[in-house]
Amino acid sequence: MDSSAAFLLFGIQLMLFQAIKGSAEWGYYQRGVPPSFWHCLEGNAMCISKRQSPVDIKTKDVVKNNRIVPFDFSDLEDTERVKMEMRNNGHAVIIDFPDRQPLIKRGGLQEPLQLNELHFHWGSNSQWGSEHTINGHRYAMEVHFDFVTTGNGPVELRAVISVLIYAGKHNSNYDEIVSMLPYIPSAGSKIVLDKFPVIDLFPESTNCWYRYCGSFTTPPCTENIIWTIFEQSISMSEYQINAFRTLMGTPSMFEYNIVDTFRPIQPLWQRKVTLSCPRRRNYENYRRFESNDRCINHVFRRGKSQNTYSQSTSRSDNSVCLWVNFYYQNHVDEP
């Protein structure tokens, strides 16, 4: 094939790719476009960038940083008058706060930060399910508390606090959530929860946490997240975890159990993970905000939208994405 014919073929492939790349939907491993090909979908080019999440935290490589002010979670203790709605969106269980969003302060983050939502990730068994791993070990579940800045700055910086969950003893702090799961059996269903202190969903000790700069773990994989992963994990019983596995997603007329809702581990590249265990005394000289300059500057460079991210791909990648979109567009309704 001469160069002109090859160029023409590539042009045809590129036009077809542009025409159909928005028709397929992202997913995990049961339905939809799997994580390895999320970048092929319209608006998701950042999913193959170099500041992605989740990551494996290697404890021997973390950098200790204790000279920051501890978290102030007092507003999370006073949520018994805050309306909470739990819904099934086909990918996860999400709890929203439609009336008042509780705040957190300090902890080295910009303040105040509003709790936008919290959601869960879990596996088909308790050997896996979490998104982040510690020294290669994956937990049974992971819950993300998604916080957003309250100001009107040029860039929306977000912070996610993560709690890792292992299969073990019954956890009564999660009883209200687990007991209401049968009322959101499939995608699109939702229920109002009885109010409870959100702080109860955290580990008993929140004194130590890992931190790094990363992204959303779902499309569009925007890189504007400061991640905080508590060092202490919590337990839930197999009965409680199994309640999540009974939920169904409905991408089409065929239902499937929502399981294995975790993205594969992403490379750290040049990023560092810090471990902070601030002492709750004499911290007048501690930093009010952690030194997140590189992370914040990165967000400013990217801008508020990932449209500033270069969406150029190689010819071979365009060919792969063409096949991926064609396949998942035409097989999404198969049982």
Automatic annotation (TrEMBL):
SMART domains: Carb_anhydrase (SM01057). Residues 1-24 form the signal peptide. Its EC number is 4.2.1.1. It catalyses: hydrogencarbonate + H(+) = CO2 + H2O. One of its GO terms (molecular function) is carbonate dehydratase activity. InterPro entries: CA_dom (IPR001148), CA_dom_sf (IPR036398), Carbonic_anhydrase_a-class (IPR023561). This is carbonic anhydrase.
